Structure formats: C-alpha cells, structure tokens
Amino acid sequence: MKIDGIAYRSVWIDTEDGWSLRVFDQTRLPWATEILRLTTRDEVARAIATMQVRGAPLIGAVAAYGLALALRADSSTEALERDAEILARTRPTAVNLRWAIERMLTRLRNTAPPERVAAAYLEAGLICDEDVAQNEAIGRHGLELIEQAAAGRATPGRTARASRTTRPDRVNVLTHCNAGWIATVDWGTALAPIYMAHDRGLDVHVWVDETRPRNQGAALTAWELGRHGVPHTVIPDNAGGHLMQHGEVDLVIVGTDRVTRSGDVANKIGTYLKALAAADNNVPFWVALPSTTIDWRMRDGLREIEIEQRDPGEVTRMTGRTDDGSITTVQITPDHSEAANPAFDVTPARLVTGLITERGRCDANEAGLASLFPERA
C-alpha cells in the first residue's frame, strides 16, 4: 500500500543498516508517521507488548524477524529455545504469534548454529511474502461480497429502508478495530476487499468504529482509508446498532486474532456486540482471516481462548492532539474509580455469517473450514 504515493510494507529489513528491522510506530499514528529501528530481541518484544506493532498477522511476522535478530547475538540451541519463548509470550490472544514462532523453530532446530541467522532471515521473509499473497486473495474473495451488495443496491425497484439518509446506491461497510495493511504485512484482511472495491470504482463507504479504549479504528483505520482515498466516517462504538436499525449498514467485515476449528471468533473487544446487532437486523457479519489465524487445536472459543487483560490505564487515560498541535495524554475518569480492560471478546460461530480466507469463503463451522482446508481437518 502507499503513503503519500510511496509504496510500503508494514515491516521490512534494512540490509544497509546491519540487517535491522524497520516498522511503523503505530502508537504515533495518526499524528506522526515514525519508523522504528529494531535491532535486538528485547526491542522487538517491547514493540509487540506496547502495541507499537499490532495486528495478528503483523506481530507474527515481526516476532519471526525478532528471532533472527536474537540469533545474531547467540545462535546456540539453548538461546534459540529461550528467545523463542520470550517472544511468544509477549501477547497471548493472537494465534499468529505462536504459529510464526513454531514455524521458525521447525526450520531452525535442524539447522546448524552457524547457519541459523541466514536461515532465520530467509524463513521470516517467506512468512511475510506468504502473508501478502494470502491477504490479496482474501481481498479478492471479499470483493465479491461488496460487488453483490452494490448490484443489489442498483437493482431497479429496490427500496432501502425509508429512514436511510446516505446515498441510496452506496455500499456501506462497517468495520471494528483495525484489520488493514498496517495490521498485516500488506493489504490487510477486513480492509483488503474494501481497497479493491474502491480501486475498481465501486461506490463504497466505511463506517469506522472508534474502538475504545485504544482507538485503533479512529486512529489507524481512518488514517489508512484516508491515505488511500476511501470515503469513511468515524463513529462511536455504540452507534453501529443504531445505523443497522436504520438500514445504513449493508454488511459488516471484521478481522480476527484467533478462530477455533468450530468457527468461534476472537477479535477486539466490542466485536461480539456488533455481531449481536447485525443478527438482530439481518445484516451479514463476515470475518476475514488468513489460515494462519485458525487454531485447529481449539473448539470452544469461550472456554479455551485466553483473553488478554491489558493495563487499566488505557481505559482511564486517553491520548490526542490539542488545538496547538501538541500530543498529550489526559485522565478521563475520577481518581479513585477502578477500570477493567479486556482486550478481546469471543463471537460465537452462530452469529457469524461466514469466514473469508485466502482459499475462499465458508460457513463459520467445522464443516465449512474443513471444506477449504481438508488437510488440517
């Protein structure tokens, strides 16, 4: 994708600077576009834990490169296992992180220590390239849904709900959190179909949930869409159901950090409420994901998926830009009020219309996933 006409991936290697790792500091967006230089395992682990890099596919790719950086300091088998576990523990919910580390270990355990650094960089690069290809394929399969919605809106005699106030032929997509190219290596998951629809000239508009408490929608999704020229509107998290009731949402597309083999979906906190509202208003609710996000070991998302509990300070404080242009953080709650901060929730498969993967679309259940991935089922 492009920023001001310049093509970027979300992670890349600077071979002229000691094979260091470069990523965007997502905590500085949308106010500043700053690039981090990461050179050690600890720097990578800190960047993941503090959400300077975030998004399930991206943190897997960054962690893979983090292991390559660690091997530059010590390529012994003992260090390999230790460093891999440290990186894998940085965030618990997104399955891509553990998947990427396990793939790196499979490649490196049978490689002689002197050859491990080169092999690690090569394998991490393959993980990145495969992620780009998967997300592009997800975009193509999801594009068909937007095209179908656009065709339905253009059908002669079709009438939208009387209360609809937006352009009658425009396709309105609602998304929650950020599942765009900044959350992957390129393209994104939930946003990939939207980018392709926009680039093909379809009249598509995005309702962007702000996504409290870290505001990934308001800060990152809106920034991405704006830089690409996609029409969008930032809305409060609690406005989605109201818009659905009034016919202002044609479909919902979200990303995910983990999907069980039965189709349960773990995504940013608040996703479950959007799925409930969509079901009540007969709005299709789709989840876009690469196969690396499927956890074939789990069947019951509510019981088995570990939900990350983050710092309550993310709830009690908020960062923004003041009128004079300075960036500041302010407290928004009373001094002695406690806060809870579960980072994700689980949407049961029964509320999911379907899954969009690199191999196509399927029902959100074990049979549906098995139809696309028989070798895993």
Automatic annotation (TrEMBL):
Q: What is the protein's given name? A: Methylthioribose-1-phosphate isomerase
Q: Organism, per UniProt?
A: Lichenicoccus roseus
- NCBIfam families in alphabetical order: eIF-2B_rel, PRK05720.1, salvage_mtnA
What is any one GO biological process for this UniProt entry? L-methionine salvage from methylthioadenosine
Name the Enzyme Commission number(s) assigned to this protein. Answer: 5.3.1.23
Cross-referenced HAMAP family:
Salvage_MtnA
User: So, what pathway does this thing act in?
Assistant: Amino-acid biosynthesis; L-methionine biosynthesis via salvage pathway; L-methionine from S-methyl-5-thio-alpha-D-ribose 1-phosphate: step 1/6
Query: Where exactly is the site Transition state stabilizer?
Result: C177
Q: Where is the active site?
A: D257
> Any idea which UniProt keywords this protein has?
Amino-acid biosynthesis, Isomerase, Methionine biosynthesis
Please give the family membership noted in the entry: Belongs to the EIF-2B alpha/beta/delta subunits family. MtnA subfamily.
Q: What does it catalyze?
A: 5-deoxy-alpha-D-ribose 1-phosphate = 5-deoxy-D-ribulose 1-phosphate; 5-(methylsulfanyl)-alpha-D-ribose 1-phosphate = 5-(methylsulfanyl)-D-ribulose 1-phosphate
On whether Isomerase is a keyword of this UniProt record, the answer is yes
Q: Which Pfam families has this protein been placed in? A: IF-2B
Is the Isomerase keyword given for this protein?
Answer: yes
Q: Which domain of life is it from?
A: Bacteria
